[in-house]
User: Fold UPF0225 protein R3Q16_27735 from Rhodococcus globerulus.
Amino acid sequence: MTSRRPITAQLCPCGTGNSVADCCGKYLEGGASAPTAETLMRSRYTAFALMDTDYLKRTWHPDHRPATLDLDPHQRWTGLEILSTERGSLFDSDGTVEFRAHYSYGTERGNLHERSRFARIDGRWLYVDGDIG
Assistant:
C-alpha cells in the first residue's frame, strides 16, 4: 500500500527551487517520463521525500526491483546534491548519477552517498542499482 503525501505548491525536495507541481510532480503523477537520468534521480529523491512508493517501484528496473518497499515515515529527506553525471542524456541508453542525499531521523543527521546506474528502456529511464560509498 502506498503512503504518499499530496503534491502541492511547496518547493520541490529535489532542490531546483521550483514547486513540486512545476518540477518532479509531473513525473510522479505519471503525466510525463523523466527525459534524463539526472531528472529521474531527482524525481526519485522527491518520491522518497513524499513517500511515493508506487513511483519508486514504477521507475525501478524490473530485474532489480524489490518485492516490497517499506519507507520509514520518521526519516525526513532534507536535501539533495548532484555530484556528477555520466551519460544519461536524451540520446544515451545508460547513465550514472552520483549524489549525496541528506536526511534527519529524530535528532540524528546524516547523508547517503550513492553512485546510481540508470538504463533507458523503450524510451523510459529506469533506476537499475547503485553503489553506496
Summary: The chain has a mean pLDDT of 93. Residues 93 and 117 are 11 Å apart (CA to CA). The longest strand covers residues 108-121.
